[in-house]
Design goal:
The chain is of the alpha/beta class. It is about 45% helix and about 25% strand.
Length: about 290
């Protein structure tokens, strides 16, 4: 398990305030200061510096933080593994909405058929929240579509999917559409900020010197099914991954909008904390889920 001083250090990193860290840990503020000074003496470095009244991590502090987060994650993973020894196998992971709803049903069905005793927990959330839950030790790994810091997380490309502009057949475009810029006059139906699908759309637009704010009208929604239903009803145009709209495309409820800049593709990534002692186990799970 983690040294209590490392726990104190992580609490200070979380709050960037010695007093609030003390309240979080239910200890005194002098005890927090003592724990931090002990770590600084042990490693012969400064971990925090004040700039005015604001507390900041030093470069050494950032390095210790990155390592300590992985250590805490592995300590919690080890605790759970020891409790499960000789019993049922447990699996805790996360997936972004597109991955969880449209990519994982097949792999999970096969996994559960192979291991009927498996205790499975899959949480669906946006990439940012999933990374936070990995850092807190709540999840072992995640499969995401959004950006992540490759210095903090190790990742493997799980699959590559086409990212399609789609609309209802007969959608009344105000002008002929050949390029991305020709779409700016339409009503765009998009995921909310922070979602992986939204981030990918923003990067696609940025690559063509455009932004979501350039669209004439924007509606932001947190549900893929609601976006699809509105698009099928001719309310607007949207960008979604092919598995999300495959059924609607086959049924003729939606059609792909051909653009000269396309096709757009994006990798879904299987990731975990870099430096984890359980990396071999996560790589094995990656292979199982990709079968």
């Amino acid at each position: 398990m983690l040294d209590f001083r490392i726990e104190t250090f992580l609490a200070v990193c979380q709050t960037m305030n010695f007093t609030r860290a003390a309240e979080l840990l239910h200890i005194t503020q002098p005890a927090v200061s003592q724990h931090i000074h002990a770590l600084e003496s042990q490693y012969s470095v400064r971990l925090f510096l004040y700039q005015g009244k604001q507390l900041h991590l030093t470069e050494s502090g950032r390095l210790l933080y990155q390592t300590a987060v992985t250590m805490r994650h592995d300590a919690l993973r080890l605790r759970d593994a020891l409790r499960q020894a000789g019993g049922r196998r447990h699996l805790r992971f996360g997936a972004t909405l597109t991955v969880g709803e449209y990519i994982m049903p097949g792999p999970l069905r096969r996994l559960l058929e192979q291991d009927p005793g498996l205790q499975l927990r899959m949480l669906t959330a946006n990439t940012r929240d999933l990374l936070r839950l990995i850092d807190q030790g709540e999840l072992d790994f995640a499969i995401v579509e959004g950006n992540f810091d490759r210095q903090l997380y190790e990742g493997l490309a799980y699959c590559t999917q086409r990212f399609l502009p789609v609309c209802a057949p007969g959608y009344p475009f105000p002008r002929p559409v050949r390029t991305m810029e020709d779409l700016l006059d339409v009503h765009l139906l998009a995921r909310e900020p922070g979602s992986g699908t939204r981030s990918v759309l923003e990067r696609v637009l940025e690559a063509h010197n455009l932004a979501i704010q350039n669209f004439h009208r924007l509606t932001e929604l947190g549900s893929l099914n609601l976006i699809k239903n509105l698009a099928c009803a001719g309310v607007g145009v949207t960008f979604l991954y092919q598995p999300v709209v495959q059924q609607e495309l086959q049924q003729g409820l939606l059609q792909e909008i051909p653009l000269e800049e396309g096709p757009f593709c994006h990798d879904f990534t299987f990731l975990w904390r870099r430096g984890s002692a359980f990396a071999g186990e996560y790589r094995a799970m990656f292979q199982l889920l990709r079968q």
